[in-house]
């Protein structure tokens, strides 16, 4: 069959994410004997509808697969939903194509029923897409109903039906990103070439979806040699500036990530690496040293809090001591580390918030250290279906039985004095250029100009490592808070109000 696969993610910024998952599906579909074409809309600009129509007319596909990565931007201070633009894509396709449309990707996996209904697609694929999509195509070819295929969701009459996905081993043809899409625009804007070394996440964080419908909680590891072979091939073929591991947690299990790092060190070539989601435990001198030797110069780390109480409540599986130890070790290196803090989970109060801010002020400032730290503080915790937080949020009245998961739904601890929390965060950010607040993310709209500037002056990658310098400049010139939302607590309250919350955090302003 002729299969057209479309990346609907149109977020071309400094954190642009090449559609790795879609490319995995493309390679598996081709290996199963189909003719495959991939259309990437990320950099298609306002002409994207035309690109899409042209691809449909010239390729004449029999099935179209859409990948949906982001539902929203997970930011309570400036919430953006990406679904309206995905709907525009499906509507454009529907106008010139009447055969089956299949949607997949993390966005689709998180809330399959709502996404399928909203987009009026024919089928939805949850979790791993490769074998499930191939089986779905086989049944369509034979004219059979795919309803019993694990991972496939569809409407049966007016009822949504889904067969639970079965997550098998992580093996199969390499995604070969550079073959399916043009990686140059990603490279130009500061993005990376993605690599996945495992699937599954065994952490038990109460708010997270990775161990649920996204990847499951059972680790599925790829052979380290195979992972590094993939890197070597991509390096030779596409010469990306930087590779990025997109595993949920790169350094868990430790042994597997050690084997990958050692394998990279053994190879004769040099490449630069970064990673998202490092676990603070085991991030000691020895491990960091090996990362450096392998070519890592930066990474993201997601403690979410530096308060023991909050780490316990989030079920992070590590304590404040681990976070401090990791910071001390990182501070003795020249890495760029982007630390994420999620303020407002169950039990958060102004004291636990202050503990996290104090941690950033004490450990994450430059203070003549070789390291570059970014301490990113978000407020509000996004509530996803099937998580423990969903249950807590329901019990505490943040959502009710009719809550629509497609809307961005938020939890914020009622133990917080919200106005004071906003002041605490702003105050810390005004004396510490390493601290980034949720609204700073708005700066990403200037990504193209910034990337051009960074390129001309040959700034090192990833470009986020220059955020603290930009902040310092902002603080020196008085520009730092000029564009911040004037009433941050008001924005947060509006979000909570929109989702139907009527609790204490809102009543405070009324009385
Ligand atoms: C790594 C990562 C990042 C990195 C990306 C780095 C990079 N160079 O790509 C960084 C940190 C930069 C990042 C940024 C963001 N991220 Co992020 N990120 C992830 C993470 C951990 C992994 C994504 C990934 O690459 N997975 C590996 C690939 C192989 O898996 P996959 O895409 O899911 O594909 C499989 C299936 O979904 C399926 N599939 C995929 N497409 C298709 C298509 C068809 C037709 C079929 C049948 C199947 C199918 O098959 C694939 C193979 O099995 C996920 C969480 C997770 N564990 O999935 C969050 C996640 C995708 N991110 C999320 C978000 C929100 C964001 C941001 C918007 C945050 C922000 N405010 O900036 C940005 C958006 C960036 C962008 N431009 O799009 C959310 C999206 C959900 C939501 N609420 O919208 C997720 C799910 C995390 C979460 N909150 O639960 N992210």
What labels describe this entry?
511 residues, alpha/beta, Rossmann fold, pyruvate-formate lyase- activating enzyme, 2 domains, 7-stranded mixed sheet, 4-stranded parallel sheet, 21 helices, globular, binds cobalamin
Any overview of this molecule?
The protein has two domains: 2-162, Cobalamin-binding domain (Rossmann fold); 183-493, Alpha-Beta Horseshoe (pyruvate-formate lyase- activating enzyme). A seven-stranded mixed beta sheet has the order 2-1-3-4-5-6-7, with helices on both faces. The termini are far apart. It has helices at residues 20-31, 48-59, 83-96, 106-110, 112-119, 130-141, 177-180, 184-189, 210-214, 224-238, 254-266, 285-294, 308-313, 320-331, 350-363, 388-395, 418-431, 447-456, 467-477, 488-498, 504-510; strands at 2-7, 35-40, 63-67, 101-104, 123-125, 152-156, 159-162, 193-195, 198-199, 220-221, 243-245, 273-275, 298-304, 336-343, 372-379, 381-382, 410-411, 435-437. Helix 2 runs parallel beside helix 3, helix 10 (224-238) packs across helix 11 and helix 15 (350-363) packs parallel to helix 17 (418-431). The radius of gyration is 23 Å and the shape is globular. The protein has 21 helices and 18 strands. It is of the alpha/beta class and 511 residues long. The model has no long low-confidence stretch (mean pLDDT 96). It binds cobalamin. Cobalamin (B12) is lined by residues 5, 9, 11, 13, 15-17, 20-22, 24-25, 65-67, 69-75, 102, 104-107, 109-110, 125, 128-130, 133, 191-192, 194, 196, 209-210, 214-215, 244, 246, 248, 276.
Radius of gyration: 23 Å
Q: What hetero molecules are bound to the protein chains? A: cobalamin
Could you report the average pLDDT, rounded to the nearest whole number?
Answer: 96
Oligomer: single chain
* Helix count from the secondary structure assignment: 21
- Overall structural class, as computed from helix and strand content, comes to alpha/beta
Number of domains: 2
Silhouette: globular
Spans of at least 5 consecutive residues with low confidence: none
Number of strands: 18
Major beta sheet, strand line-up: 2-1-3-4-5-6-7
Distance, first to last CA? 64 Å
Task: Give the C-level CATH assignment of the largest domain.
Answer: Alpha Beta
């Amino acid at each position: 069959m002729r299969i057209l696969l479309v990346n609907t993610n149109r977020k071309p910024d400094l954190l642009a994410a090449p559609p790795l998952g879609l490319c995995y599906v493309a390679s598996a579909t081709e290996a199963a004997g189909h003719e495959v074409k991939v259309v990437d809309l990320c950099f298609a600009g306002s002409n994207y509808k035309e690109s899409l129509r042209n691809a449909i007319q010239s390729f004449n596909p029999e099935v179209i697969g859409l990948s949906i990565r982001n539902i929203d931007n997970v930011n309570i201070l400036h919430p953006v939903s990406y679904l309206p633009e995905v709907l525009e894509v499906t509507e454009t396709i529907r106008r010139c194509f009447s055969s089956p449309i299949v949607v997949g990707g993390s966005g689709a996996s998180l809330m399959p029923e709502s996404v399928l209904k909203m987009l009026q697609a024919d089928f939805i694929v949850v979790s791993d897409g490769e074998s499930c999509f191939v089986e779905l195509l086989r049944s369509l070819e034979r004219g059979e109903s795919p309803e019993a295929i694990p991972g496939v969701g569809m409407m049966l009459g007016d009822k949504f039906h889904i067969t639970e996905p079965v997550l098998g081993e992580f093996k199969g043809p390499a995604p070969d990103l550079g073959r399916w899409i043009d990686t140059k625009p990603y490279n130009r804007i500061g993005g990376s070439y993605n690599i996945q070394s495992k699937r599954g996440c065994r952490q038990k964080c109460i708010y997270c979806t990775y161990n649920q419908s996204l990847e499951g909680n059972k680790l599925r590891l790829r052979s380290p040699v195979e992972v590094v072979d993939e890197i070597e091939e991509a390096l030779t073929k596409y010469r990306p500036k930087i590779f990025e591991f997109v595993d949920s947690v790169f350094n868990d299990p430790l042994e597997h990530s050690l084997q990958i790092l050692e394998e990279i060190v053994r190879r004769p070539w040099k490449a630069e690496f970064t990673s998202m989601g490092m676990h603070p435990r085991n991030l000691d001198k020895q491990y960091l040293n090996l990362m450096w030797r392998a070519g890592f110069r930066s990474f993201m780390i997601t403690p979410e809090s530096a308060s023991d109480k909050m780490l316990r409540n989030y079920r992070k599986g590590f304590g404040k001591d681990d976070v401090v130890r990791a910071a001390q070790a990182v501070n003795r290196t020249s890495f760029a580390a982007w630390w994420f803090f999620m303020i407002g989970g169950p039990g958060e109060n102004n004291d636990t918030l202050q503990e996290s801010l104090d941690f950033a002020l004490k450990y994450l400032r430059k203070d003549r250290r070789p390291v570059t730290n970014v301490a990113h503080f978000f407020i509000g915790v996004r509530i996803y279906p099937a998580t423990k937080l969903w249950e807590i949020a329901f019990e505490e009245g943040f959502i009710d039985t009719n809550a629509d998961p497609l809307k961005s739904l938020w939890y914020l601890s009622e133990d917080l004095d919200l106005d004071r929390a906003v002041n605490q965060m702003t105050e810390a950010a005004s004396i510490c250029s390493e601290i980034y607040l949720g609204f700073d993310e708005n700066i990403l709209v200037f990504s193209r100009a910034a990337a051009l500037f960074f390129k001309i002056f040959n700034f090192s990658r990833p470009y986020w490592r220059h955020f603290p310098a930009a902040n310092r400049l902002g603080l020196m010139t008085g520009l730092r808070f000029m564009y911040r939302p004037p009433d941050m607590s008001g924005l947060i309250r509006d979000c909570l109000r929109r989702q139907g919350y009527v609790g204490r955090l809102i009543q405070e302003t009324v009385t």
